[in-house]
Specification:
Organism (chain B): Marimonas arenosa
Shape of chain B: elongated
Pfam families (chain B): PhaG_MnhG_YufB
Helix content of chain A: over 70%
Largest sheet of chain B: none
Largest sheet of chain A: none
Radius of gyration of chain B: 23 Å
Strand content of chain A: under 5%
Radius of gyration of chain A: 19 Å
Structural class of chain B: mainly alpha
Keywords (chain B): Membrane, Transmembrane, Transmembrane helix
Protein name (chain B): Monovalent cation/H(+) antiporter subunit G
InterPro entries (chain B): PhaG_MnhG_YufB
Structural class of chain A: mainly alpha
Oligomer: heterodimer
Chain lengths: 146, 135
């Protein structure tokens, strides 16, 4: 990969912009198209493109596999915990109105934001984990035999 | 409709329609041209001319709003990524041994002394200079 100068420079330039765009899609999801799933995929793309251009080893130094596995579970926990909190406050599971009983719409706004954050974290983790699983697999056919 | 708005409307539609024309030309080129390199060339027409004209037209449609800013950002993004993707594809093809088909034909079409191996050295040299001058 050393000779791909243009690809390396452009990737360095774009990875930051891609992550910024993922955060925009994540937190602007209630005003424009987007949400947790799309944001998670875009965030994962930043790491995947980094891994494709600068080897898998470099990508795993930035985003180690153990962290991916923890995040993957953390997102689901955020989602489930939001529901449990609303249950603990005496409402139904995932009834966001529980957070601000005097103004339910406010609570729904915050609830959806937190749940979408959980979705985003999980989707990022799953996408990167799938990429790691495929890319780290030893090739069964050597390059010469293609 | 005021004159300024009319000019803006007409100009934006001219840009959008010509952008769509270039996109169509790029699509036809990718479909009909004979080999990989000429198809890549045709596809890049969509990337450059078509994209720039379409985004410029849409910017004029939306006026001075946040949409224009977003369109310009999208334009910059495509302006960087399009040529990079074309470069990556062309580089991969070149490294894996694909050569333009035309090149062989062009060499065959050159004056005879170049292709005849046993020709006189001075003669071949002269012809080569002549060809270079003609080119």
């Amino acid at each position: 990969m050393r000779h791909h100068l243009i690809l390396r420079v452009v990737t360095k330039l774009l990875v930051g912009a891609i992550i910024l765009f993922a955060l925009y899609v994540q937190f602007h999801g209630d005003f424009s198209p987007g949400g947790g799933f799309q944001a998670g995929v875009i965030m994962a793309v930043a790491f995947i493109i980094y891994g494709v251009v600068f080897s898998l080893r470099q990508a795993q130094r930035v985003f180690p596999p153990w962290l991916v596995h923890k995040l993957l579970a953390l997102g689901v926990l955020i989602y489930a915990f939001t529901g449990l909190v609303s249950m603990a406050l005496g409402y139904e599971y995932l009834n966001y109105g529980a957070f601000t009983p005097h103004h339910p719409e406010h609570g729904q706004h915050w609830g959806i934001l937190i749940v979408e954050l959980g979705v985003g974290v999980t989707v990022t983790g799953v996408m990167v984990a799938i990429y790691y699983a495929f890319a780290a697999r030893p090739p069964t056919i050597s390059d010469k035999d293609w | 409709m005021s004159t300024a708005a009319l000019i803006q409307e007409v100009l934006s539609w001219v840009l959008v329609v010509s952008g769509a024309f270039f996109a169509l030309v790029g699509a036809f080129g990718t479909w009909r041209l004979p080999d990989f390199w000429s198809r890549l060339h045709a596809a890049s027409v969509t990337d450059s001319a078509g994209m720039i004209l379409l985004i410029a037209g849409m910017c004029l449609q939306s006026g001075l709003t946040l949409v224009t800013v977003k369109l310009i950002v999208i334009g910059i993004f495509l302006f960087i990524t399009g040529p990079t993707a074309t470069h990556a594809v062309a580089n991969a093809a070149l490294v894996s041994g694909l050569r333009p088909r035309e090149a062989e034909g062009l060499i065959a079409a050159e004056p005879e002394p170049l292709t005849v191996a046993g020709g006189a050295e001075g003669d071949a040299e002269g012809t080569r200079k002549e060809t270079a001058g003609a080119a």
